[in-house]
Design goal:
The protein is α/β, with parallel strands linked by helices. The protein contains six helices and 19 strands. The strands form five sheets. A five-stranded parallel beta sheet has the order 4-3-2-8-19, with helices on one face.
Length: 308
Protein backbone atom coordinates (compact mmCIF):
# COMPACT_ATOMS: atom_id res chain seq x y z
CA UNK A 1 0.00 0.00 0.00
CA UNK A 2 1.34 3.44 -0.95
CA UNK A 3 1.67 6.05 1.78
CA UNK A 4 1.67 9.83 1.55
CA UNK A 5 0.73 12.82 3.69
CA UNK A 6 -1.91 14.37 1.44
CA UNK A 7 -4.08 13.19 -1.44
CA UNK A 8 -5.86 15.63 -3.73
CA UNK A 9 -8.81 14.14 -5.61
CA UNK A 10 -9.42 16.01 -8.85
CA UNK A 11 -7.14 17.84 -11.27
CA UNK A 12 -9.17 20.92 -12.12
CA UNK A 13 -8.13 24.46 -11.14
CA UNK A 14 -8.88 23.85 -7.44
CA UNK A 15 -6.93 20.59 -7.35
CA UNK A 16 -3.96 21.94 -9.30
CA UNK A 17 -3.83 25.08 -7.18
CA UNK A 18 -3.87 22.95 -4.03
CA UNK A 19 -1.13 20.81 -5.56
CA UNK A 20 1.06 23.82 -6.25
CA UNK A 21 0.77 25.06 -2.67
CA UNK A 22 1.21 21.61 -1.13
CA UNK A 23 4.24 20.79 -3.28
CA UNK A 24 5.87 24.13 -2.45
CA UNK A 25 5.33 23.37 1.24
CA UNK A 26 7.23 20.08 0.79
CA UNK A 27 4.22 17.99 1.73
CA UNK A 28 4.36 14.48 0.27
CA UNK A 29 1.33 14.84 -2.00
CA UNK A 30 -0.37 12.77 -4.70
CA UNK A 31 -3.00 14.26 -7.00
CA UNK A 32 -5.43 11.74 -8.46
CA UNK A 33 -7.18 12.61 -11.73
CA UNK A 34 -9.43 10.12 -13.52
CA UNK A 35 -9.32 11.93 -16.87
CA UNK A 36 -7.43 14.89 -18.28
CA UNK A 37 -6.08 17.51 -15.84
CA UNK A 38 -8.00 20.76 -16.12
CA UNK A 39 -11.57 19.66 -15.41
CA UNK A 40 -14.48 21.33 -17.19
CA UNK A 41 -12.39 24.46 -17.71
CA UNK A 42 -10.53 22.89 -20.63
CA UNK A 43 -13.80 23.07 -22.58
CA UNK A 44 -13.90 26.87 -22.33
CA UNK A 45 -12.90 28.40 -25.63
CA UNK A 46 -12.15 31.81 -24.13
CA UNK A 47 -11.83 33.00 -20.52
CA UNK A 48 -11.76 36.77 -20.24
CA UNK A 49 -12.37 37.35 -16.53
CA UNK A 50 -9.35 35.57 -15.04
CA UNK A 51 -6.99 38.24 -13.65
CA UNK A 52 -3.69 38.75 -15.38
CA UNK A 53 -4.75 37.98 -18.96
CA UNK A 54 -5.76 41.28 -20.56
CA UNK A 55 -6.91 39.66 -23.80
CA UNK A 56 -8.22 36.47 -22.23
CA UNK A 57 -6.95 32.91 -22.56
CA UNK A 58 -8.41 29.57 -23.58
CA UNK A 59 -9.35 27.18 -20.81
CA UNK A 60 -7.09 24.44 -22.15
CA UNK A 61 -4.07 26.76 -22.28
CA UNK A 62 -4.66 28.10 -18.77
CA UNK A 63 -4.99 24.60 -17.32
CA UNK A 64 -1.93 23.36 -19.22
CA UNK A 65 0.09 26.17 -17.64
CA UNK A 66 -1.22 25.31 -14.18
CA UNK A 67 -0.35 21.65 -14.66
CA UNK A 68 3.21 22.50 -15.80
CA UNK A 69 3.65 24.80 -12.82
CA UNK A 70 2.45 22.12 -10.40
CA UNK A 71 4.77 19.51 -11.90
CA UNK A 72 7.69 21.95 -11.75
CA UNK A 73 7.25 22.16 -7.98
CA UNK A 74 7.33 18.37 -7.80
CA UNK A 75 3.65 17.47 -7.54
CA UNK A 76 3.02 13.81 -8.35
CA UNK A 77 0.00 13.41 -10.63
CA UNK A 78 -1.47 9.95 -11.11
CA UNK A 79 -4.18 9.12 -13.60
CA UNK A 80 -6.57 7.06 -11.53
CA UNK A 81 -10.11 7.23 -10.25
CA UNK A 82 -11.04 6.80 -6.59
CA UNK A 83 -13.49 3.99 -5.89
CA UNK A 84 -13.87 4.28 -2.13
CA UNK A 85 -12.67 6.31 0.85
CA UNK A 86 -12.36 4.57 4.22
CA UNK A 87 -11.40 6.36 7.46
CA UNK A 88 -9.05 4.23 9.56
CA UNK A 89 -8.17 5.95 12.82
CA UNK A 90 -5.84 8.85 12.09
CA UNK A 91 -5.42 7.66 8.52
CA UNK A 92 -7.63 7.61 5.45
CA UNK A 93 -7.50 4.70 2.99
CA UNK A 94 -8.32 5.35 -0.65
CA UNK A 95 -9.19 2.48 -2.98
CA UNK A 96 -8.15 3.58 -6.48
CA UNK A 97 -8.09 2.07 -9.95
CA UNK A 98 -4.42 1.24 -9.38
CA UNK A 99 -4.26 0.10 -5.79
CA UNK A 100 -4.67 1.47 -2.28
CA UNK A 101 -3.22 4.66 -0.82
CA UNK A 102 -2.93 5.52 2.86
CA UNK A 103 -2.86 9.21 3.74
CA UNK A 104 -3.35 11.58 6.68
CA UNK A 105 -5.48 14.15 4.83
CA UNK A 106 -7.41 14.58 1.60
CA UNK A 107 -8.66 17.53 -0.43
CA UNK A 108 -11.80 16.74 -2.41
CA UNK A 109 -11.81 18.80 -5.62
CA UNK A 110 -14.03 16.61 -7.79
CA UNK A 111 -16.04 19.44 -9.32
CA UNK A 112 -19.37 19.13 -11.09
CA UNK A 113 -21.00 17.44 -14.08
CA UNK A 114 -23.50 18.95 -16.55
CA UNK A 115 -27.17 18.41 -15.73
CA UNK A 116 -29.15 16.26 -18.14
CA UNK A 117 -32.44 17.27 -19.72
CA UNK A 118 -33.89 13.86 -18.92
CA UNK A 119 -36.04 13.73 -22.06
CA UNK A 120 -36.66 11.02 -24.62
CA UNK A 121 -33.84 10.82 -27.14
CA UNK A 122 -31.18 12.50 -25.02
CA UNK A 123 -29.20 9.39 -24.10
CA UNK A 124 -29.84 7.73 -27.47
CA UNK A 125 -28.37 10.66 -29.40
CA UNK A 126 -25.52 11.59 -27.07
CA UNK A 127 -22.48 11.74 -29.31
CA UNK A 128 -24.74 11.69 -32.37
CA UNK A 129 -25.94 15.27 -32.21
CA UNK A 130 -26.48 15.74 -28.47
CA UNK A 131 -23.52 17.39 -26.75
CA UNK A 132 -22.63 19.20 -23.55
CA UNK A 133 -19.52 20.90 -24.93
CA UNK A 134 -19.66 23.27 -27.89
CA UNK A 135 -15.90 23.79 -27.85
CA UNK A 136 -15.41 20.03 -28.20
CA UNK A 137 -17.91 19.39 -31.01
CA UNK A 138 -18.77 22.71 -32.62
CA UNK A 139 -16.62 22.16 -35.70
CA UNK A 140 -18.71 19.12 -36.67
CA UNK A 141 -21.68 21.39 -37.35
CA UNK A 142 -20.19 23.65 -39.96
CA UNK A 143 -22.96 25.14 -42.09
CA UNK A 144 -25.68 23.38 -40.08
CA UNK A 145 -28.51 24.36 -37.72
CA UNK A 146 -27.99 23.78 -34.00
CA UNK A 147 -29.83 24.54 -30.77
CA UNK A 148 -28.45 25.59 -27.40
CA UNK A 149 -30.63 24.89 -24.35
CA UNK A 150 -30.14 27.28 -21.43
CA UNK A 151 -29.91 30.94 -20.56
CA UNK A 152 -26.86 31.32 -18.31
CA UNK A 153 -23.34 32.47 -19.08
CA UNK A 154 -22.16 29.07 -20.33
CA UNK A 155 -25.13 28.64 -22.68
CA UNK A 156 -24.87 32.07 -24.25
CA UNK A 157 -21.07 32.04 -24.53
CA UNK A 158 -21.24 28.68 -26.29
CA UNK A 159 -24.05 29.89 -28.57
CA UNK A 160 -21.80 32.77 -29.66
CA UNK A 161 -18.92 30.36 -30.17
CA UNK A 162 -21.08 28.06 -32.32
CA UNK A 163 -21.78 30.88 -34.79
CA UNK A 164 -18.22 30.37 -36.01
CA UNK A 165 -19.38 27.10 -37.53
CA UNK A 166 -23.16 26.77 -37.62
CA UNK A 167 -25.33 28.57 -40.12
CA UNK A 168 -28.04 29.17 -37.49
CA UNK A 169 -28.02 28.89 -33.70
CA UNK A 170 -31.29 28.69 -31.78
CA UNK A 171 -31.18 29.51 -28.08
CA UNK A 172 -34.03 27.77 -26.25
CA UNK A 173 -34.85 29.19 -22.83
CA UNK A 174 -37.74 28.44 -20.51
CA UNK A 175 -37.97 32.05 -19.35
CA UNK A 176 -38.56 35.35 -21.16
CA UNK A 177 -35.14 36.77 -20.28
CA UNK A 178 -31.61 35.45 -19.93
CA UNK A 179 -29.67 34.83 -16.74
CA UNK A 180 -26.32 35.48 -18.42
CA UNK A 181 -24.33 38.58 -17.51
CA UNK A 182 -25.30 41.70 -19.45
CA UNK A 183 -22.17 42.00 -21.57
CA UNK A 184 -22.56 38.41 -22.80
CA UNK A 185 -26.26 38.99 -23.51
CA UNK A 186 -25.48 42.06 -25.58
CA UNK A 187 -23.03 40.14 -27.75
CA UNK A 188 -25.63 37.47 -28.42
CA UNK A 189 -28.49 39.88 -29.14
CA UNK A 190 -26.51 41.70 -31.86
CA UNK A 191 -25.34 38.45 -33.52
CA UNK A 192 -27.52 37.90 -36.62
CA UNK A 193 -26.91 34.14 -36.59
CA UNK A 194 -28.54 33.66 -33.18
CA UNK A 195 -32.31 33.32 -32.79
CA UNK A 196 -34.01 33.16 -29.39
CA UNK A 197 -36.95 30.89 -28.64
CA UNK A 198 -38.42 32.09 -25.36
CA UNK A 199 -40.68 30.39 -22.78
CA UNK A 200 -39.88 26.98 -24.25
CA UNK A 201 -38.48 23.64 -23.14
CA UNK A 202 -37.35 20.54 -25.03
CA UNK A 203 -39.80 17.65 -24.65
CA UNK A 204 -38.09 15.21 -27.01
CA UNK A 205 -35.05 14.83 -29.27
CA UNK A 206 -35.80 13.04 -32.52
CA UNK A 207 -33.84 11.65 -35.44
CA UNK A 208 -32.61 8.61 -37.30
CA UNK A 209 -28.90 7.88 -37.15
CA UNK A 210 -28.32 11.49 -36.04
CA UNK A 211 -30.37 14.26 -34.45
CA UNK A 212 -32.90 15.72 -36.88
CA UNK A 213 -35.38 17.73 -34.79
CA UNK A 214 -36.57 18.82 -31.37
CA UNK A 215 -40.08 18.79 -29.96
CA UNK A 216 -40.50 22.10 -28.12
CA UNK A 217 -43.21 22.95 -25.62
CA UNK A 218 -44.29 26.47 -24.75
CA UNK A 219 -44.46 26.58 -20.95
CA UNK A 220 -47.27 29.14 -21.04
CA UNK A 221 -49.88 27.33 -23.12
CA UNK A 222 -48.22 23.86 -23.40
CA UNK A 223 -48.48 23.88 -27.20
CA UNK A 224 -45.78 21.86 -28.96
CA UNK A 225 -43.85 22.63 -32.13
CA UNK A 226 -41.09 20.91 -34.07
CA UNK A 227 -37.72 22.56 -34.73
CA UNK A 228 -35.43 21.08 -37.37
CA UNK A 229 -31.82 21.02 -36.14
CA UNK A 230 -28.71 18.94 -36.70
CA UNK A 231 -27.49 19.13 -33.14
CA UNK A 232 -28.35 20.31 -29.64
CA UNK A 233 -26.00 21.58 -26.94
CA UNK A 234 -27.31 21.39 -23.37
CA UNK A 235 -26.37 23.93 -20.69
CA UNK A 236 -28.91 23.78 -17.87
CA UNK A 237 -26.63 23.86 -14.88
CA UNK A 238 -24.50 21.32 -13.06
CA UNK A 239 -24.64 18.67 -10.36
CA UNK A 240 -21.84 18.02 -7.84
CA UNK A 241 -19.61 14.97 -8.09
CA UNK A 242 -20.07 14.16 -4.41
CA UNK A 243 -21.23 10.52 -4.40
CA UNK A 244 -17.77 9.46 -3.31
CA UNK A 245 -18.09 11.37 -0.03
CA UNK A 246 -21.85 11.39 0.58
CA UNK A 247 -21.44 9.14 3.65
CA UNK A 248 -18.20 10.76 4.77
CA UNK A 249 -18.94 14.50 5.11
CA UNK A 250 -21.94 16.78 5.44
CA UNK A 251 -23.62 17.86 2.17
CA UNK A 252 -26.30 20.44 1.48
CA UNK A 253 -29.67 19.60 -0.07
CA UNK A 254 -28.19 19.81 -3.58
CA UNK A 255 -25.27 17.53 -2.80
CA UNK A 256 -22.54 20.18 -2.47
CA UNK A 257 -19.97 19.75 0.31
CA UNK A 258 -20.41 22.10 3.25
CA UNK A 259 -17.15 23.69 4.45
CA UNK A 260 -16.05 26.60 6.60
CA UNK A 261 -13.98 29.47 5.22
CA UNK A 262 -10.81 27.39 5.65
CA UNK A 263 -12.19 24.54 3.52
CA UNK A 264 -12.66 22.22 6.53
CA UNK A 265 -15.51 19.74 6.06
CA UNK A 266 -17.46 18.10 8.88
CA UNK A 267 -14.77 15.37 9.14
CA UNK A 268 -11.25 16.13 10.43
CA UNK A 269 -8.58 15.64 7.79
CA UNK A 270 -11.03 16.01 4.90
CA UNK A 271 -11.03 19.31 3.05
CA UNK A 272 -12.93 20.42 -0.04
CA UNK A 273 -12.18 23.01 -2.72
CA UNK A 274 -13.63 24.35 -5.94
CA UNK A 275 -17.02 23.83 -7.54
CA UNK A 276 -17.82 20.85 -5.30
CA UNK A 277 -18.23 23.25 -2.35
CA UNK A 278 -21.42 24.99 -1.28
CA UNK A 279 -20.72 28.63 -2.20
CA UNK A 280 -21.98 31.70 -4.06
CA UNK A 281 -19.65 31.83 -7.07
CA UNK A 282 -18.19 28.96 -9.08
CA UNK A 283 -15.46 30.35 -11.34
CA UNK A 284 -11.82 29.51 -12.06
CA UNK A 285 -10.65 32.36 -9.84
CA UNK A 286 -12.64 31.13 -6.82
CA UNK A 287 -11.59 27.52 -7.42
CA UNK A 288 -7.92 28.52 -7.44
CA UNK A 289 -8.38 30.48 -4.20
CA UNK A 290 -10.17 27.52 -2.59
CA UNK A 291 -7.33 25.19 -3.57
CA UNK A 292 -4.68 27.44 -2.06
CA UNK A 293 -6.62 27.79 1.21
CA UNK A 294 -7.31 24.05 1.40
CA UNK A 295 -3.63 23.21 0.96
CA UNK A 296 -2.55 25.63 3.69
CA UNK A 297 -5.29 24.35 5.99
CA UNK A 298 -4.20 20.77 5.31
CA UNK A 299 -0.59 21.72 6.04
CA UNK A 300 -1.58 23.12 9.46
CA UNK A 301 -3.69 20.03 10.17
CA UNK A 302 -0.77 17.73 9.38
CA UNK A 303 1.57 19.78 11.57
CA UNK A 304 -0.87 19.55 14.48
CA UNK A 305 -1.10 15.77 14.01
CA UNK A 306 2.68 15.45 14.27
CA UNK A 307 2.67 17.40 17.53
CA UNK A 308 -0.15 15.40 19.11
Amino acid sequence: MDKCELVIIGGGPAGLSAGIYAARAAIKTVLLERGIPGGLVIRAQHIENYPGFENGISGSELMAQMEKQARRFGLEIRFAGVKEIQPAGDEIILETDHGRISTRAIIVATGVEPNLLGVKGESEFTGRGVSYCATCGGAFFRGKRVAVVGGGDAAIEEAIFLTKFAERVFVIHRRGELRATKIIQQRAFVNPQIEFIWHSVVDEIQGGDLVESLVLRDVRDHKTTSLAVDGVFIYIGYRPNSNLVKDLVELDEKGYIITDENMHTSRPGVFAAGDIRQKLLRQVVTAVADGAIAAVAAEKYLEEMKLS
